[in-house]
Amino acid sequence: MKTLRIILVLLVLLILIPFAGHILWRIEPQRQLGVILVDKSVTDICRSSHLPFLWTLNHFRFTKSDGKPYDLATDYYGFLPLAPENSRNFEVKRIRLEDIEELSDKNDVLFYADTKGITYGEWFMGASGEKKGSTIKIIGGLNQNDYFLLKSMYDKNKTVIAEHQFFSSASDPLVLNKTAEMFKIDYSYWNGKFFPKLDTAKNPDLLPELVASYTKLYGKPWHFKGPGIVFIRGSRILVLDQNDLLSPIPLIVTPKSKAAEYYLPDTIQYPGWFEISGSGPANEIFAEFYIPVNDSGRARMEREMIPVRFPAIIHSRQKQSLWYFTGDFSNCRIPYWTRKIKNWEKISVLHSSSPQKTTNFVWRYYIPLMSKILDDTYKRLH
Questions:
Q1: What are the structural domain ranges in the chain?
Q2: pTM score > 0.90 for this model?
Q3: Using DSSP, how many helices (H) and how many strands (E) does the chain show?
C-alpha cells in the first residue's frame, strides 16, 4: 500500500510540474526580437541542426515583430526538407539581393547555424543508406548575397553569430576570404570530433570514406577500437586513441570571470564536431578548446601542426555584437515540446550528466550562453 502511494505521488508530480511550468512560461512577457536564421545543412524533418537555437528563442519568449513565435520548420533561410520525410521533397529558400537592406534594417540578430550544405547524393540516399547520384551541391557555402547581408548587419552594429562550418570549403573563395577578414578569423580547414567507439563494426557514425582515407594515407588498415578523437583536413587524418589521450573527450575552458557573467561552467566536456581556427588581436578568446593529450599525443599533434589549445568561442573587441563558435554547438536533438515549460533547462541539467552526449553540453553551456547573448541584444535595443 505504501509503495502504491509513493507511485501515485510521483505520477501526480510528473503531471503537475510540467503543467505548473507551462503556466509560468505563458505568463512571462513576450519580447519582440527580429532574428534571421540561415541553415544550409538541414538533413531531417526534426531540424536538429538548429533546434537548440529555436528552442532558446521560444523558451525565453523572443517573438517575431507580429508577436508570433519563431517556427522551427519554416523561419529560416537555406535547405528546407518537406514532409513526409521519405518523399525526399525539399525547398530552397535563398537570400535575395534586393531584400538585404530591408532585412538588415528590420532585424536585430543574424545567426548562421551551418553553411556546409547538402549534395544531391546526400539527400537522395538509397534504402541501405548508400549515397546515390551526384556530388553537386543543392545548396552550400557562403555566396555573395550572404556576404552582403553579413556586412550590412555588421555595419549597423546588429548581433551577428556564426558557427562551425561557416567557413566551409563549399564557399566562393573570394567571399570566404572577405568574410574571414570581416570576422578577423584565420580558418585552417582542420575539423575534429570525439568518438565513443573507434571500432567500425560498432559505430555507424564512422564514415566509410574516412576509414578508406586513413588506410590510403598510412598504408595500413584501420585498427582502432576504443574511444578517441579524429582530426581530418581533406585527405589528411590524425587519430588519437587511449594511447595518446589523458581523457578522450575535448574540453571547453572558459575564464572564471566570463563563466560567472554568462552563468556557465568554467570547464565542460564537448563531444561534438569542432574546427581549428585562429584569431588576431581584434578579437578576444571568450573560451578555448583543450585536447587532454599525453606526451605521445602532443608529439603527434605537433607533427601535424595542430595546437593542443585553440579558440572555441571568439568575441570581437571592436564589435561587441559579433560572435563565432568553432564547435557545432547548435546541432542537437532535444525535446522541442519542453520549450514551453519555464526553467526546463535547469531541470534537464539534473539528469543530463553523460559527457558523451551533446545534450549535456547544450543544457549546461549552449542555452545559457545563447540566451544571455539574445537577452543582451534585447536590452541594448530597449
A1: 2-184+318-381, 188-272+294-307
A2: yes
A3: 12, 18
